[in-house]
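Course exercise 7: structure representation. Students receive a sequence record and must write out the corresponding structure in token form. The form below is the worked example handed out in class, using F5/8 type C domain-containing protein (784 residues). Read each field label carefully; the graders check that inputs and outputs are placed in the correct fields and that the protein name is recorded exactly as given.

STUDENT ID: A-19
EXERCISE PROTEIN: F5/8 type C domain-containing protein
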Amino acid sequence: MKKRLFSLLCLLGAVSGLFAGDTAYLFSYFINDSRDGLHLAYSLDGLTWTPLNHGKSFLIPTVGKNRLMRDPSICQAPDGTFHMVWTSSWTDRIIGYASSPDLIHWSEQRSIPVMMHEPAAHNCWAPELFYDEPSQTYYIFWATTIPGRHKEVPVIESEKGLNHRIYYVTTKDFNTFSETKLFFNPDFSVIDAAIVRDPVMKDLIMVVKNENSLPAEKNLRITRTTRIEDGFPTTVSPSITGDYWCEGPAPLFVDDVLYVYFDKYRNHQYGAVCSRDHGKTWEDVSDRVSFPKGIRHGTAFTVEKAVLDKLLRIHNFNPLVPDNIADPSLSKFGDTYYLYGTTDIDKGLSQAGTPVVWKSKDFVNWSFDGSHIVGFDWHKGHEYVNAKGEKKTGYFRYWAPGRVVEKNGEYYLYTTFVKPDENARTYVLKSDRPEGPFLFAGRNSISSHSLDGFDQSCIAPDIDGEPFVDDDGTAYLFWRRRMAARMTDDWQHLTGDTIVMSTARQGYSEGPVMFKRKGIYYYIYTLRGNQNYVNAYMMSRQSPLSGFEKPEGNDIFLFSSIANNVWGPGHGNVFYNEETDDYIFVYLEYGDGGTTRQVYANRMEFNEDGTIKTLVPDEKGVGYLAVSQEQRENKALKASFSASSVRSPRTSKVEIETQPNRPLADKTSLVKVERTHIYHPGNAGDQSNGTRWMAETNDDHPWLMVDLGEAMQVTECQFAFVHPAEGHAWHLEKSNDGTNWQPCAEVKEVKACSPHVATVGDKVRYLRLHIDKGAAGLWEWKIY
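STUDENT ANSWER:
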């Protein structure tokens, strides 16, 4: 535990003290159609706003008719908790709610039924939060149309039936709420109310949008009050914005300057006005503000510097490695972590990629060099005749390696080999090194021209062999369809009876895992598959093969999280890290379906009685388990990228089961979701293993170029290519004007490794990578 604390302090020390001031400013907003959820940006001066989390969402919406997260409004409580409300649908009579201690980890989302008592209500738009310190009360207010309820105003044809007023509820704990009441009822249609307290005048300023359309107003006005419980005067100021349509005001005091940011929605721009005399006169400063691309209606608020420091440090550590991998298992020998898995190449189950072993010393920076299995040509087709007498072509495939275990200096690998004729079994291999090369047990070498002894190394008649070594050294093997048996003392054969593990749930099952914790044996088995993979477990205090019982509570401990954008967490493995006393579950994530999967990892937690707490999978992952092996600044994070071509986006549409305890036939628990992978060049510089640049399939000379903005000293580049186990050849050029290029580095012959490293050792502004052979894509380009 001391080592873990020391490592953590080293990491925090390296990034603490990012800013000298005590406060910073945050902006919550949405982009596009708001289905990808909450986005955050920060500023130190109120003028320049920079997206956080590389522009990615912090929270995916899960409530409401349309599961939107429009107009997110965030308010920080005195105890530091952040509360958020949002528009969940164009036509809902509810609003969404969630809370967070740090804006990173969020509570379960809930619906607040603020207008359910009004069956004629059209909507609940743009809810805003305001905390009234004198009464220690939260006010939630929003715009709703109730036909015939208020004085009608002339409207254009497209807005027929809409006549909004501002309503509100109060709460002290977000569990109980006051009766819904009318909050602001001027003589015009009004939406998008936002309140800020003047730090000098001590009164409250409310900014609202005059939504009248005939004649068109579509501008912002202000009104003031000294006590919120007295309401706001309905006589408002003249427009504080210019000759353009705008909405979504977000007021913010930066020292004594009051800014009001807003969406010029017809111009697809964000603007701002400011007042230096506490709201008496206003100046348009739209030409001086800078916002993230695509920003839409949100709120601006002040936070302590420590909050921003933590947000700047966050990083999504899932997927774990930059490659398409499935069925992962994890072992640690010495100071190195070893990750074994199935290499996916998006060709279905009929063909798999070259198997490799990924290594890391910090659990974040991973690499491999060559394959640990020799003697196979994974791309060579072999003809065979099936049971129907039909001629077919098949390939050798390597699948689902179990956790590598060590005995007397030898490392044992239990893995599935599939023969070209689809015969799939588990085999045992050995090596004197955990990274291989591994040879079939009992053999000293293997020739690419001969597979003699291949069948003699078969240990189980089916796939997904997973070993377990008990405290007394007795070894067991578990495999698909709940099968299990004890192994002989040499760990190369099975002995005794083969049993069927007793489980509470029936149905097809694969990817078994056995581990032991505090005298309890845990048997994990998968159910269902694809985007609806779930992991269930049984517990025993007797032995690895007997005495298993269904745990109290939820025996399905891992399943999809729509909110966290993790689908179908499937076939995985439990790793125990002795130094940190952590149990970590590594598993496959659905990806785009088929064989496009990636490896994720999350910590497991246990209750006092030993039962496993529900593991909510996320993209945050585990992070560093040791001091980072890379302390240099990655210049790619601030660079711009362009490419010879960009592959068209790929969209996956699925139905995900949100309540896995129900039968899959119960359609009420199925939710339709979709995700779109975009392959733009900037993905190569975002420090994410889950995004990538891909060239068009017909691009015969693919290249990716980086512009550092100015000439600077570059020591080396690291390239994490797409499908790296299949190998790449490439050459790199450098330039200071983007026109005249010089050769910089190259790999002429196809080499299978990740990352590829190019030595630069020069002051350059532009670098251009040409992919000569291999998949035309890049997960990451790191520049040091």
